[in-house]
Amino acid sequence: MKLLNNFLIMVFILLVGINEIYAGAGNRTGTGGASQLLIPVGARGIAMGSANAATATGIEALFWNPAGVAKLNNSADVMFSHMDYIADIGVEYGAVSANFEGFGVLSLSVKSLSIGEIAITTVDNPDGTGRTFSPQNLIAGITYSKQLTERIAVGVTANFVTETLADVSSNGVAFNVGVVYDNLASISGLSFGVVMKNIGPKMKFGGSGLLIQADAGSLSRPPQFYSIESAAYELPSTFELGFGYQPKLDEMNSLLISTSFQNNNFSSDEYKVGLEYGYNNMFFIRGGYSAGPQNTNDFIYGFTAGAGINYNFESLALRVDYAYRDTDFFDGNHIFSIAFGF
User: Fold this and answer.
1) Stretch 146-173: mean pLDDT
2) Which CATH number fits domain 2-341: 3.30.420.150, 3.40.50.300, 2.60.40.1730, 2.40.160.40?
3) What sign has the CA pseudo-torsion 19, 25, 31, 34?
4) Hey, which bits of the chain come out as E strands?
């Protein structure tokens, strides 16, 4: 009973901060910023419909719920992932996690977007000046996770966000905090997870690109520059509740069922479900579905599918995963991940 009470207190603390998030709705779509924070990483979780708030474990849980990282099976894990995102954008991701006995798990992660070159246009040259620029979006995170008891795990992530567009840039920090409770209500295999993501102060752009030349025609002084102050924008905060259930089958076969509900500060709510079948803890087949309101265009994803292979050498655990995510208006997303455990 005391264990359950402690968990409920943690959940309550997370729920206290949800008021601002629930103030968001579909009518705020497009008014936030730093949307790269919402781009998922990791083929396993994406293949399961991104419904992994309660079931993601180890280094793969860094994006979904930092509490799940506490369930690291190895002394250290390294993970790399690539996604063919929409509009020919590539998403590159790398992470490392280390388990320190008695302290917890520390993790570092980096995510970047490969957008390519964009032609510079002006009022006088609407077809282009012949010059180009390449937008840069980078997220570097540090995560601390700890298994408090056999059932309760907690985690917190600090993400440092930077966006650069030609001669302007913006920097900020976003926090994720999550809790996972296993064997909920003393039911073996039933997990519950809650996570708040992208909580932090507003960001704003600045730089030489906001300098405007002013001519003082009636004064005896040369032209001067003044800076335009850009409006601050909020982070795309989310709140997610998830359940997972892993029934006992036999030694050779496993099944994982995962569901979650996600409330978004700047878009409509999402409902997710995912399944994973495993054979001999080596071969895995996954599928999932994400749904949003049908009368809006701010949700373009649907069915997902994928597969994975786990293979343990004498001192090395290798995991290779692939996922496909169906997308409206654009080509589908292809995601590849590889992880090493030591």
Assistant:
1) 95
2) 2.40.160.40
3) positive
4) 76-84, 90-100, 104-114, 118-119, 132-133, 136-147, 152-165, 168-182, 190-199, 211-214, 224-227, 238-245, 253-264, 270-279, 283-291, 301-312, 317-327, 333-341
147 contacts 71 by C-beta, under 8 angstroms: yes
Q: How far is CA 341 from the centre of its chain?
A: 22
- pLDDT one-digit tens code per residue, 227-285: 888 889 999 999 999 999 999 899 999 999 999 999 988 888 899 999 999 999 999 99
- Cβ neighbors of 336 (< 8 A, separation 6 or more) are 43, 81, 82, 83, 321, 322
Separation of alpha carbons 193 and 12, rounded Å: 13
Q: Which two tokens stand for residue 180?
A: 């996972």
Lowest mean pLDDT segment, chosen from 8-17, 117-126, 181-190, 264-273? 8-17
> 241-278 b/e with 16+ CB inside 10 Å = b?
bbbbbbeeeeeeebebbbbbebbbbbbbbbebbbbbeb
The token pair that represents 140 in the structure block: 């570097």
C-alpha of 148 from chain center: 24
Helix or strand holding residue 221 (H, E): none
Amino acid at 1: M
Distance set, CA 269 to CA 27, 240, 291, 330 (Å): 12, 10, 9, 21
**At 14, which amino acid appears?**
L
At 319, is the secondary structure helix, strand, or coil? strand
What is the distance between the alpha carbons of residues 157 and 168, in angstroms, rounded to a whole number?
27
